[in-house]
């Protein structure tokens, strides 16, 4: 062994003993690589954005460095984009898609049919009476044809139908006007219209709590029914609004394997990791309720993110996209829901857009 090699080994050991993990963390923080680069051989890494996000030069810079896919957070939902029968608001959606095209970013469209953020007019006639099945189907078709058609060739994947499985274990489909007026085939019809509008786009069913066994079984049943009926569906979007308390590795692994067994692509579409237990009902922040990030919460969050991304990498053949829901802890929908006014810290970047310690757990592999 030459003197140069001896010296190199000595230097490496000395450096590790003196600087330890700090040196590794600093190299990640200061390196040129972003999330998209670490996961280049695995899947695209996306983020949900809005016009305000894209107007901030610092947030734009972070997006360019870390991500290679974007999803409009709200701009393409039916209420914002189609508030009246003869009115479409294209400004925000166009600005996001144009930004992506200019900067060679992929776009996931979100979402064409949902029970929330849906304008009342679509269910009513001019006299305010509930419309017929035929009228509602025609309106749904016109909406999907118009929106998907406008972005044909620019949006590679769509969340077509969102959250139709009921959280109540005793019910299958969620009660909604879509279900009441059209019947269960409103789901298949939406996929049919989206495929007709853009035959090359990948089409997804999107939902939350997809890892909870009781809901997972119902989602699996729905997907199997759609596939058996030859509905043009390409994958499932697992929202992944998780917390430091759930899902367990066992439940997440079982879910990935179950959905993948159907031959569908898996997109993790709205990833964040709340530091608080899940609550279903919205409420105000209580007096004395703290919202400071504790060392224990930060440690548990790091372990949850590490576990999730380890499984993502393990099942890379089925998982073809991972998207975070918002850019940083500076702004996140979890600051408003379910506890309005309570600060949450669910993402990999802090309020100053700096990488948090948890970032290292995601990219160290």
Number of domains: 2
Global structural class: alpha/beta
Largest sheet: 8 strands, parallel, barrel
Tally of DSSP β-strands? 11
In the CATH hierarchy, the third-tier topology of the largest domain is known as: TIM Barrel
Task: Please name the defining characteristics of this protein.
365 residues; alpha/beta; TIM Barrel; 2 domains; two-stranded parallel ribbon; 13 helices; globular; disordered N terminus
Structure description:
This protein is of the alpha/beta class. It folds into 2 domains: 1-31; 33-363, Glycosidases (TIM Barrel, Alpha-Beta Barrel), CATH 3.20.20. Helix content is 42%, strand content 16%. The protein has 13 helices and 11 strands. It has helices at 3-30, 35-38, 51-55, 57-66, 78-81, 91-102, 133-150, 177-182, 186-197, 213-228, 249-260, 295-314, 357-363, and strands at residues 45-49, 69-72, 106-114, 157-162, 202-207, 235-238, 241-243, 265-274, 283-284, 319-324, 339-340. Helix 11 links the parallel strand 7 (241-243) and strand 8 (265-274). Helix 7 runs parallel beside helix 9 (186-197) and helix 12 packs parallel to helix 13.
Note the topology.
Layout (H helix, E strand, L loop, with lengths): L2 H28 L4 H4 L6 E5 L1 H5 L1 H10 L2 E4 L5 H4 L9 H12 L3 E9 L18 H18 L6 E6 L14 H6 L3 H12 L4 E6 L5 H16 L6 E4 L2 E3 L5 H12 L4 E10 L8 E2 L10 H20 L4 E6 L14 E2 L16 H7 L2
Parallel strand pairs: 1-2, 1-10, 2-3, 3-4, 4-5, 5-6, 6-8, 7-8, 8-10, 9-11
Helix pairs in contact: 7-9, 10-11, 12-13
What is this entry, summarized?
This protein has 13 helices and 11 strands. It has 2 domains: 1-31; 33-363, Glycosidases (TIM Barrel).
